[in-house]
Amino acid sequence: GTRALADGATATAAGHFRRSVELTRADLAADRSRRRSRLGRALAPIGGVEDATAAFESAMDDARVARAAGDHSWRTAFATAAEALATLLFERIRFVDAWRLGDAALEEMGEGDDLDTARVRVARSRGRTGETNDASGWVADCERAIEAARAAGDADAEYELRRDLGRARSEAGLATAADWTVLADLARARGDVAAEVSARLMESAYRMDAAPAEALALLAPTRELAVARGLVERLGWLDHAAAEAALGAGEWDMTIEAGLRAATLGERYGYDRISVRSWTALLPAASLRGEREVLERAEAWFDARRGRLPDSPYGRVLHAACGLRIAAGTGRPSEPPDLEHIRPAIGQWIDQGGFEWLAATDAILDAWFADGRLDWVRALADADSPRPPIPPSPAQPAGLELVRIRLEAAVGEPDRDRVGRTRAVLVAFRSIGLPFWEARAIRVLEGLGDAGAAEVGEREAIEARLGVVRPVLQ
């Protein structure tokens, strides 16, 4: 089973691990716990979420049986299962549950500086990051865990924790595309197919900010690898990434096709985090095209989970934007989200990259402009980043500048070369290759009375190619 898993034959590995559990003697509870954890790890990425959860929970119970029998290896078995279950809860966007599980497991195990404690501490911090959007604790706990792995002489654990540190640094805005290229090459050298796919996925995410078309090219062969190895969860994230890159690159047929594949996969296997992110990526295109069947399907998905999705600052923005996109595309009235509901995320409006995030904030700001809530727009326009300076997505500062220009014009502030600044924004969007946002910038130029016939024609051609049926700037 271990050899099959290393080769990416995940379903085969799951079968071997399940058989190994069945063959374990009744009095070897710690062995059974470890084997159940391996079974859960094999099941989770191929869509067996409920079975994986049950395997991890049973593994924790087996470890407790081993503890009662005086087997000192119980603690390692328990930590392995608890960390794996917390990780699975995180991927199902049950961030608070992952956080609480980590707390409870550490209380049961007892704190320490050993590798077992360090792994559970990392899982707890990951859950806390998902809920609070503060990755500093996750980064610190990963670094501490890597030191524990070195002290234990566990090279495999150090390798896994370095991958986790990459994710944590990404959440904190500290990683680069080169970091993920190195990790992907290392995974390939180790024959770790699943890790290679994950690292290539993250590499594409970093390249996406400045070159969405380049990211699409990188994702295609990685997706083929995930399909060949049956890596269901990673396949969902790859399709989500393709949907987001295509949103930026203006390939909206692909946005909707890839986004629906990812959202459907997430729904089928219980990966809510994949689904909500994929709906956020595809709904701008579906809404502006008026694709009612897609919009109603998204609406049903969110309605079925009303009150159950995490109430994180990041999630509030995504959920509100999805609601606005669905209402606009179906022609239904909607209320823009209240500033106080959104306020905890205001710092992120500046820090976050990614086209699904930029499109989500656009939807909320457009609703505020249309509703005359210019004071709410001002709260964003005047906000400062709460974090140290980080190189943002090139599109993000341009998008924020466009907000300021629109606000100044709406309230009648003195003209500080609004036309020149809008043209600079347009150049920034063109340099990345973002047709949708190019059209939005030209719409602002038209509102300022300074768009030439060629620019209006360019905007009309973009909107026609994207297939939009209503203005790209509300």
Radius of gyration from the alpha-carbon trace, in angstroms: 24 Å
| Major sheet details | none
* Helical residue percent band: over 70%
Question: Please, how many helices?
Answer: 25
Give the overall shape, derived from the CA principal axes: elongated
Number of strands: 0
Give unreliable regions as ranges. none
Given helix and strand content, the structural type is: mainly alpha
Strand content: under 5%
- Please state the average pLDDT score: 91
Taken in chain order, the helices and strands follow as HHHHHHHHHHHHHHHHHHHHHHHHH
Q: What's the assembly state of these chains? A: single chain
What is the terminal-to-terminal distance? 55 Å
Reconstruct the topology from this structure.
Layout: H1 2-6, H2 10-23, H3 29-43, H4 49-68, H5 74-91, H6 95-109, H7 115-132, H8 136-152, H9 155-171, H10 177-190, H11 193-208, H12 212-229, H13 232-249, H14 252-269, H15 272-289, H16 292-304, H17 313-330, H18 339-342, H19 346-351, H20 355-370, H21 374-381, H22 395-411, H23 418-432, H24 435-447, H25 453-466
Structure description:
The chain has 474 residues and is an all-alpha fold. The protein contains 25 helices and no strands. It has helices at residues 2-6, 10-23, 29-43, 49-68, 74-91, 95-109, 115-132, 136-152, 155-171, 177-190, 193-208, 212-229, 232-249, 252-269, 272-289, 292-304, 313-330, 339-342, 346-351, 355-370, 374-381, 395-411, 418-432, 435-447, 453-466. The longest helix is centred in the N-terminal third of the chain and has 20 residues, at 49-68. 52% of the residues are buried.
